[in-house]
Structures are given as C-alpha cells and as structure tokens.
Amino acid sequence: MTSKIIAKGILRAVAIIVGVVLACYLLIKIQSVLAYLAIAAVIALLGRPVVLFLRRKLKFPNTLAVIVTMVFMLGIFLGILALFIPLINEQSKNLSLLDIESLKADINTLYLQILEYFGATTDSVSHLIEDSDLEKNVLEGLDLGFIPNFLNSFLNVLSNFSIGLFSVLFISFFFLKDSKLFQNGMLVFVPDEKEGNLVKSVDKINNLLSRYFAGILLQLFILFVIYTIALLIVGVENAIVIAFLCALFNIIPYIGPIIGGAIMVTLTMTSFLGADFSTVILPKALYVLIGLVVGQLIDNFFSQPFIFSTSVKSHPLEIFLVIIIAGLLFGVVGMVVAVPGYTAIKVILKEFLAENEIVKKLTKNL
C-alpha cells in the first residue's frame, strides 16, 4: 500500500468526520424547523382520515376538505384550551388571589401546620435560613431591572409561539393537501434506481407512525381514566381537567410524568387550602400520589412495552437510549420526536442498506 493511497484514505475519513460534525451542527441550529416539520407531519397523519372521508363520502373538493379539516382540528385545540379556564378560575379562588390578606393567612396557616406535623419550629427554620445566608442572597439578587427583562422575555415567547403556530399550520395545510409532497421532495435527492425503495420506506413509515400515535392516544386515555378516578375519589374540583392536563404531560418521556405528578399533587393541596393539614390536606395528597404511582406502573409495565413492541417494533431499552441521546442533543423537543424520528431512520436504513450487518441487527423486527 503506497503512501498516496494511505493519504487518500486519511483525507476521506477526515472529510466524512467533518461532514458528520457539520450535519449534526446544522441539525442543532435548525431544530426548531425540524420540530415544526415533525408536528406538521403528525397533524397531517391525524387529519388525513378526515380529509379522505370528506373527499370520498361527502364529495368535497380537495382544498375545501383540507381547510375544513384544519378548522376542525384547530377548533379541537381551542376547545381543549377552553377547558382550563374553569380550572384557572377555581384555583384563583382557592388561592384567594383577589384577597391578599386571606391568601397570606392561608399560606401562613399551612406553613405552621406543616412545621407542626414534622415536629419543627419557626425558630429552627429561621436559624437555618440565617445560617445559609438565603435571605441575604435573595436581597442582593433583587433588582427592579428584572421587570423590563421579564416583559422582553414574555414578548419573545409570545413571538416565537406565534411564528411556530403559523409555521405548523402553513406546513400542515400543504402536507394535507398533497399527501405525496414530502415524498416528492425526498425523491429530488434520490437516484432514479432508488426511488422505489424510498416510496416503500415512506409507506411503511406512515403505517408504523400511525399505529404509534394511536398507541400514544391509548396510553394517554388510560392515564387520564386512572388520574380522574383518583381525583374524584379525593373530591378535587375540576378533576377531569386536571387529569387531562397531567396525562398530557406524559407525551414528554420520563420528565413529563414527574412534571404532571407535581402539578396534580400541588393542585390537590391548593384545592383544600385552609383545611387541617394532617387530617385533610396530607391524606388527600397521599391518595392522589398513590393514584399517580398506580398509573405510572401500568404505563411503564403495560402501555409503553405494548406500544413499542407492536407499533415501532423496537426494544424498550433501545428506545430509552434513543430518547436520552435526543434529549441531550435537542432538549425536550428532541425527547418528544425521538421515537418517530428513530423509527423513520430505521425504515430508511433497511430499504437502502439492507445488506449491512449492523442495519440487519437493528431492523430485524421491521
């Protein structure tokens, strides 16, 4: 082997590494765009049956069917948001937001009851705060300049949400209008002899992801029922809305259930603010916590393995590693789209690199 061949091999390896690094960097930079595409693709998958029904059964023109479908789905989304208005109103009353003195009295009473229950005193807590210099650090860090910063952050979030919502609606419209749009766009980058492989890949991806999202809906429904039963037994106001909200957080793998559980326990305690802590608030919070644990056990040992094995045909440990890696690279959005994205990649690899030994092992169940 000559030095020229070795040099070419080294340069080729370096070029491949640089290309991979640049591709990863580009993906990180455009992760918001990828998120818009992923959300729009999910909306298109969910709305496609409605479009087909309107076109085939009611003889709607394609464009009108898409518009009606998107208005229908947007109405569902706004209806879900409207469900939380009674919850916000109820919690506002429970927290006495319109009566500051009553709010301070209720919080102080709850604070004293918690200290009494755990055998602590106000003096010991005060000494602990003084020893940790917490009060000093808080006062030093207090700056009225946070007000304009907060307003700027709020306007930035509102702006990003508006752009994201418009982008998702715009992309979803064209995905629904032309179901082959994404496929045709991919065909531009594929050689003619490989177009058949891509078409088969897209069809298989649509089939697998349709079953995956159906499984996710089943998973959320099971958790919603369990949470609703637990909250109704305890007697929490707006139990259905709270259960729906907390179940919805399970879309975010691993982190979502923790956030949803914390919200459910907090809302349960604030629903009974002013009652005795040891005989009312704590027992009811524990009952709700038991309901959360039962729901998560059923979800972890029944729902998730069933979804992963029958829809995306991947091992739970494999899915766990993929979600963790996607979370480290792309944050919460990466965790949400990790499983659909990984499934699509596996299908494409099987169609284009079927003879590769690593691909064979990864895709043997597909």
Total strand segments: 0
H/E element order: HHHHHHHHHHHHHH
The oligomeric state is: single chain
Structural class per helix/strand content?
Answer: mainly alpha
Low-confidence stretches: 134-147
Cα radius of gyration in angstroms: 26 Å
Number of helices, where a helix is a run of at least 4 consecutive DSSP H or I residues:
14
Helix proportion: over 70%
Average pLDDT level: 75
> What overall geometry do the principal axes of the alpha carbons give?
globular
Largest β-sheet summary = none
Description of the structure:
The chain is an all-alpha fold and 366 residues long. It contains 14 helices and no strands. 23% of the residues are buried. The model is unreliable at 134-147 (pLDDT under 50).
List the helices and strands and how they pair.
Layout: H1 3-29, H2 31-56, H3 62-94, H4 100-117, H5 122-131, H6 134-141, H7 146-177, H8 181-187, H9 195-234, H10 239-248, H11 255-271, H12 277-312, H13 316-352, H14 357-362
Helix pairs in contact: 2-3, 2-7, 2-13, 3-7, 9-10, 9-12, 9-13, 10-11, 11-12, 12-13
Descriptive keywords:
14 helices; globular
Quick description:
The chain has 14 helices and no strands.
